[in-house]
Automatic annotation (TrEMBL):
This is Peptide ABC transporter permease. SUPFAM superfamilies: MetI-like. Its main location: membrane. It is a multi-pass membrane protein. It comes from Alicyclobacillus hesperidum. One of its GO terms (cellular component) is plasma membrane. Coiled coil: none annotated.
Amino acid sequence: MSTQSVAVNTTANTPKQKAKRKNSALQTFFKNPRSLVGVILFGLFVVIAIFAPLIAPYNPSSTNFNMLQPPSASHIFGTTSLGQDVFSQFIWGTRATLIVGIGAGVLSTIIAVLIGVTAGYLGGVTDSILNAICNIFLVMPGLALLIIIESYVNNSTPYMNGLIIALTGWAWGARVMRSMAMTIASRDYIAAARLSGASTFRIILFEIVPNMTSVIASNVMYACLAAVLAESGLAYLGFENVASTSWGTMLYWSSQNGAMISGAWWWFVPPGLGIALLGTSFALMNFGIDQVTNPRLRTSRKKKDVQKLLKELQQSQTKGVSTDGGQ
């Protein structure tokens, strides 16, 4: 009898209630000024990446222009020491960097969810084995591991670098997913799902993972940021096909040709600023996710609103008393 009641309670969430919670979460996210700025910045880079062939005025590899020409009407970001248009390189580099960052971030998060949730829910020997593998990746220095792998891959493209970053950067996320899965697995509705005969795959996919959406979204943001920084760092160090066009290779060529020494700031500032702004957009969007998932942040904001309202009421009452006294 009690089992049936628990099962009924777990199915009490109707589609209307779920849709209402989803709309409330989206409203909370977009009401946060920081997350809204982050979405606008990220959306701007997405538009640039999608419409790169239409936005870029020249071929990024073309060397038909004057060398080290400062920003002008014909070349918004100037030219390189080989006469290449920096603005066109920046636009095409946005596409490559964004694909690598989002692709590697999403792939590493998928691996983290698969390993972390499986280990946290199943426990026992499976948890011990997967946790040991996770610990091995955690103790390895990330940049050194990437450099060693890259040294065996000749002339790797940005997309190959993204794949390597995803396959080596999932451990921290898996550790978080494992802890969350262990917490959720001990709740009553999971026990009810087991008693109802649901398979392990169904419980993980439909009961545990949906309740980890906020953690997964937050992990995606930081994984994408880490992937962008890692790819740019590898390209800057020369562990990438330097003939490819990305923000990292732009920094590599500007460094190799002494752009900073010669005062050609327009060569290295755009890719550096692009990396900083893209990373800022991920961080700002993550602030919004924190506000949606952390009740303390929402309640603290509500307390401030209540205090502000009480202060306004006190001021209005004080003005009312003063006017009555004057009459």
